[in-house]
Prior knowledge:
- With 114 residues, the chain is α+β, with helices and mostly antiparallel strands.
- It has helices at 16-28, 51-57, 65-76, 92-100; strands spanning 6-13, 36-39, 80-85, 107-112.
- The protein has a four-stranded antiparallel sheet with strand order 2-3-1-4, sandwiched between helices.
Amino acid sequence: MDKYRTRVALSVFENAADLALAVRGLKAAGIAPEHLIRIPPEAGTSVAGDPQAGAIAKFTDWAPPRMAADLAAALAAGATILIVVVGAPGTEQTVSRVLLESSALGVQLHDLGS
């Protein structure tokens, strides 16, 4: 049996307004809030609700070293990363389009797992 692969879209936001715009757009497109992983998480909230989200949020464990370093530098400069778990076929294009509308650095797509 094939092992399930988690597919994620990742985008960097320089300010809260752009992040909020993307989150509203994703929710309006039918993306469940539990599929949105914000790094760093908002004060007083966990990183989404399930254990898998915590593992996905640790991008330094799965991202190539240069990408992880670039993301860490963006965070250090005050940016926010939004990772969206693409849970259904056909949603990848919608997620990418919404993220591209307000993202600072484009959108990256990744298959996690083996």
